[in-house]
Specification:
309 residues; mainly alpha; Multidrug-efflux Transporter Regulator, Chain: A, Domain 2; three-stranded antiparallel sheet; 3 strands; 3% strand; rod-shaped
């Protein structure tokens, strides 16, 4: 069977590929000509044009020349070549999303400095182990000179170490950047250390009893919220009184005026970033910010502030 032959110019017109590009593919061994004229010019047939279509498709998909050569020589299957390219492309997309998140965070800074940009860039590109180190360093600072239960601290680190998937959303990257800024704030560290000291340096404090008392109370608060009762309602007043007595008992104290004054001081100094912390961890895990008990504790704190005033 005789194949129709084309000069390199004709092949370029038919394929839409430039003559220069055809020569490049030919010189690289990807598109050997069917032959040459007596004058030494390359000629191609329909078979080479079909081969050229495959090369162009693979190049448009971002497949490298070496991988294309292996596909054409049947050393690598077309399926495997596309799988390799897809994995590389997904990694590239993930990387670009992290870059976009870094730029968004940097542009939100009112007076952006080079140091800010370096910090945003570093925080966005940390590995899971490195992110865990950030959390561990924060808890180490909070527990300095405080008799915190090591097992409780380990549980907190495990629960709050942010998980970023291989392909994080912009919201997840933004959440990590915001969280890292909170953890790096000396004022927040000092506030959390002071709160921890008031609790853990109390010899009568029983963590297990606190958790046992707190869990059902959170359920009551959640039920009150779902029924539409606000922190200033009579329902909230009753729950505030119940928590006053329960928390005093767990702390080994009496629910008297001194204890009320202590609670008022604590709630007045409550740092909203402690609530935001867990919202950000939830976002990084791909969950709704409301999956943590922040809403219930915020409601309880507001109720205590109102009814203890």
């Amino acid at each position: 069977m005789t194949h129709r032959t084309y000069t390199i110019g004709e092949a370029a017109r038919l394929s839409g590929v430039s003559v220069r590009r055809l020569r490049f593919y030919s010189d690289k061994g990807l598109l050997p000509p069917a032959g040459r004229t007596e004058s030494g010019y390359r000629v191609f047939t329909d078979e080479e044009l079909v081969r050229l279509d495959l090369i162009r498709c693979l190049r448009d998909a971002g497949v490298g020349l070496d991988a294309i050569r292996e596909v054409l020589s049947h050393e690598l299957s077309l399926t495997d070549a596309l799988k390799l390219r897809l994995r590389a492309l997904e990694a590239e997309i993930s990387s670009q999303r992290r870059v976009a998140s870094t730029l968004r965070a940097a542009l939100r800074s009112p007076e952006l400095t080079e140091a800010d940009l370096r910090r945003f860039w570093t925080m966005t590109n940390l590995s899971r182990v490195e992110r865990r180190n950030v959390i561990e360093r924060f808890y180490s600072q909070v527990s300095q000179d405080v008799r915190i239960d090591p097992e409780w601290m380990r549980q907190m680190i495990e629960a709050s170490t942010p998980e970023l998937p291989d392909n994080p959303t912009p919201e997840q990257c933004d959440a990590w950047i915001e969280l890292s800024a909170i953890l790096d704030d000396p004022e927040f560290v000092n506030t959390m250390r002071a709160n921890a000291k008031e609790v853990w340096d109390n010899a009568d404090f029983d963590l297990a009893a606190w958790q046992q008392a707190g869990d059902p109370f959170l359920a009551k608060a959640k039920n009150a919220i779902e029924q539409g009762f606000g922190p200033e309602s009579e329902t909230a007043h009753a729950l505030a009184q119940e928590w006053l007595e329960t928390s005093a008992r767990v702390m080994g104290r009496a629910p008297d005026d001194d204890y009320k004054a202590w609670l008022r001081t604590r709630y007045a100094a409550h740092d909203a970033r402690a609530v935001r912390y867990w919202e950000l961890v939830a976002i990084m895990k791909g969950q709704s910010p409301q999956t943590s008990p922040n809403r219930e504790w915020t409601w309880i704190i507001d109720a205590m502030k109102h009814h203890l005033a």
